[in-house]
Amino acid sequence: MSLLLAQDPTLADFGQDPWWLVLGKIVFAFAFGLLATLLGVWFERRVVGYMQVRPGPNQVGPFGLLQTLADGLKMAFKEDILPKAADKVVYFFAPTISVICAVTALSVVPFGPMVSIFGHHTPLQVTDVPVAVLLLLACSSMGVYGIVLGGWASGSTYPLLGGLRSSAQMISYEVAMGLSIVAVFMTAGTMSTSGIVAKQAHGTELSIFGQTIPAPGWYAILLLPSFVIFFIATVGETNRAPFDLPEAESELVAGFMTEYSSLKFALFMLSEYVAMVTMSAVTTTLFLGGWRAPWPITLWEGANSGWWPMLWFFGKVIALVFVFVWLRGTLPRLRYDQFMRLGWKVLLPINLVWILVLSGLRSIEDWDSRGKLIAVGIPAGILLIATILWPSRRPKTKPTTQEQVDNRPYGSFPLPPMDLQVPPSPRITRVVAEREPANIVAGSDSREV
Question: Taking the model in full, what pTM does it have?
Answer without folding.
Answer: 0.80
